[in-house]
Amino acid sequence: MLKITAIGNLTNDVVLRTGENSDKPYAILRIASDRRYRAPNGDRLTDFISIKVRGALAERCAAMAYKGCKLAAVGDFETIAFAEDPRRQPGFLIKATEVEFLSPRRTEESAAAVDAAA
Question: Structural domain tally of the chain?
Fold first, then answer.
């Protein structure tokens, strides 16, 4: 069994999509994560990781995540081949089963949550 955890900042707002063969929503999240060490010249090294979320988890991410927020995603990975460009190296994405939001909610969302609770 393989389990991957990735933590980073969301590079753009979440866009829900639906599959061609299914009406179930999904989204591809892309996070940026700095490495613990720097390049020999002192520059920070950043990795960009793609994460696929489906169904209710995708809808929750669309409702709660925003560009720049920090999140942790847990799941296994899926290899991606690029049939249209065979010279391009295969990549991977994380198929998330869990997403935890590590940043506070946006201020307007926090105010709405407080008003709804009152």
Answer: 1
Question: Taking 70 as the threshold, does the pLDDT of residue 58 lie above it?
Answer: yes
Annotate 58-91 with DSSP letters as a single string. Answer: HHHHHHH--TT-EEEEEEEEEEE--TT-TTSPPE
Element holding 114 (H helix, E strand)? helix 107-117
Is there a contact between 33 and 47 (Cβ–Cβ < 8 Å)? yes
| DSSP-derived secondary structure for 15-48 | --EE-SS---EEEEEEEEEEEEEE-TTS-EEEEE
Instruction: Tell me which residue range forms the domain holding 69.
Output: 4-117
| pTM, to two decimals | 0.79
Higher pLDDT, 26 or 89: 26
How many Cβ atoms are within 10 Å of 105's Cβ, its own excluded? 14
Which CATH number does the domain housing residue 94 bear? 2.40.50.140
Query: Using one digit for the tens of pLDDT, what is the confidence trace for 6-24?
Result: 999 999 999 999 988 888 9
